[in-house]
Known about the structure:
Layout lengths: L7 H9 L4 H21 L5 H13 L8 H9 L3 H14 L11 H8 L4 H14 L2 H14 L5 H17 L4 H11 L5 H17 L1 H7 L3 H13 L14 H15 L3 H17 L5 H16 L4 H14 L5 H14 L4 H5 L2 H6 L6 H14 L5 H14 L2 H18 L3 H15 L7 H11 L4 H14 L4 H20 L12 H13 L5 H17 L5 H9 L6 H15 L5 H4 L11 H18 L6 H17 L16 H7 L13 E6 L2 E8 L7 E10 L5 E9 L5 E4 L15 E8 L8 E9 L2 E9 L9
Antiparallel strand pairs: 1-2, 2-3, 3-6, 4-7, 5-6, 7-8
Amino acid sequence: MVAPSLKLQDLIEEIRGAKTQAQEREVIQKECAHIRASFRDGDPVHRHRQLAKLLYVHMLGYPAHFGQMECLKLIASSRFTDKRVGYLGAMLLLDERHDAHLLITNSIKNDLSQGIQPVQGLALCTLSTMGSAEMCRDLAPEVEKLLLQPSPYVRKKAILTAVHMIRKVPELSSVFLPPCVHLLHERHHGILLGTITLITELCERSPAALKHFRKVVPQLVQILRTLVTTGYSTEHSISGVSDPFLQVQILRLLRILGRNHEESSETMNDLLAQVATNTDTSRNAGNAVLFETVLTIMDIHSAAGLRVLAVNILGRFLLNSDRNIRYVALTSLLRLVQSDHSAVQRHRPTVVDCLQETDASLSRRALELSLALVNSSNVRAMMQELQAFLESCPPDLRADCASGILLAAERFAPTKRWHIDTILHVLTTAGTHVRDDAVANLTQLIGGAQELHAYSVRRLYNALAEDISQQPLVQVAAWCIGEYGDLLLEGNCEEIEPLQVDEEEVLALLEKVLQSHMSLPATRGYALTALMKLSTRLQGDNNRIRQVVSIYRSCLDVELQQRAVEYDTLFQKYDHMRAAILEKMPLVERDGPQADEEAKQSKEAAQLSEAAPAPTESQASQLLDLLDLLDRASGDAQHPPPLDPSPGGALVYLLDLPCAPPPPAPIPDLKVFEREGVQLNLSFIRPPENPALLLITITATNSSEGDVTNFICQAAVPKSLQLQLQAPSGNTVPARGGLPITQLFRILNPNKAPLRLKLRLTYNHFHQSVQEIFEVNNLPVESWQ
């Protein structure tokens, strides 16, 4: 005899009345014991009640696996009350990981063929919830038959089950193609909406289905036109918008059918213009329809005027009071900025206003779009807006804003002075948030602008005198004072107000940097080197500088101690060489967008030079004779001997003039990775002055429909090589050919060993995390020999 147990309602009340977690567990354990006993005794009358209580326990998070077989027994029962609870238990307790789910295949098949609509509905719901690939293959013919049943209730559930089957087993597409065309003529709202969803799944997973359903584009256009003009039925209207759910599904399907297909796109162009102009935007339902219309216009081969209309709709979205709508508009405009730059540019003032949003996600999107809108014609105005935003933006956006301003300034700077002023403003405002290469880029920029040396050193001195907390600014200022301290003391700069500075003030400021607790070891190194260089640029006595240098000979920091020891040795033993050693730094070659432009111009010049007439045969033979003469003089060596500085070596100099080494041939680029539109290319440069050094530029592009976020590229090389990874230009690659990410690898290969590269890529794409690890063994021979 089974001990009396609680009813479901009493069980719920007792569990809710438990004051502690221990009391709740005690009630559940006691009731589960009754349920187990009832299952063992095989009570068929109350089995569905016991299982219902067990399902409630399962929903609370307690184990209920021992009820799986009872679900199968209830499904096989002829009573509807048993089947209802049994199918519900199967949906909750069974999934593909349990082999028991295969045991209900025959029961579902029998129930689908019985003709009882409620039972068929239960079976279809269960199959669409937990049906595995094996079950879908076995039961696909039964579901296909139900698609043409006269009952709308059964057909609607059969369509949704077919959607689940297509997602599980895309090979079943051919089974459901014929019924779909017939179902498009239905007037029942649920059947038509389900059919559009089913066709969408078929087109996304089967090229044959995509080609097949392009024939029904006119029919879909007519259905949507009817919805827009006359409406479907008042009961499906929301806020005055006729059936927005059906409109959105049809627009998504039209987007898939019109993508990369000119004829289908032309068929739907007029309709899209009608939807875009006639939809009410005062309600959220209308905004949803308009947004899907914009996405469809941008994905198909639409007319230019229609694309401008779509961008203007997104511009109106930016003025909406709903933050979600504004965020969607910013994200969509960011995707379109590359393909429709001029149309998006018209909404630049509204985008800039969005920078002041209190919502962090909105201001971040507005920042990304503002940086993407910067070009050579508006760079001055946009930089003013972005610099004003940098002063007041949240701390988590400062790094992105500062990096974006520096990259845009480097790419579109109208003058070098404007470029220097922009970088100095960023360093002064958010110096601690800039990228690691900002210091090197600014020093290279100042070093290459000889006419601005005096202006730059005075600006940096003034900035350093006001604030020494911004470490990148202090480093650049110390470097510049050390290089051009003589120009600072002359005070003949016409660009800024006259400022009289004496030697003691400059030395005191650098000593203040050295002694400050805010200074990093690298910053102290810059300051100590600046003091050492000023010893050759100042006219006074160097005793003060020598005393400071000698103090740091016992510094705990090894790098700073080494510098101090070397500088002190230079004072004591090699003072006669100090002026030559500490002379001004030569111009260093730059890497970046401007350097790429210069390289491109030099490449074009080289191509023009190749078009020049070749030397005549006699000239070539004379040159070969000279080379042969040098070869005979040097034996079998492959390289000519070192030049003799004696007068007798003048002939060698004379013979060496015509045979200057030709410029090295460019190393071809290499594509090493491609997946779902994400592509990674390598470009190579070997500086002629340092053949052992190889510069590899990694370029990541994205031609897919989804943004690539959190992009990280890591590399490794054999132990005989040295690898240095520079900071990437960003971590997001916008969709549809947006601004790529670039990153520089510096590889030192003094032994010219065969080069192998192992890369690891991690990024998020289409809301999925992707990690790829692969080895590149086919690098060009020119990159290491």
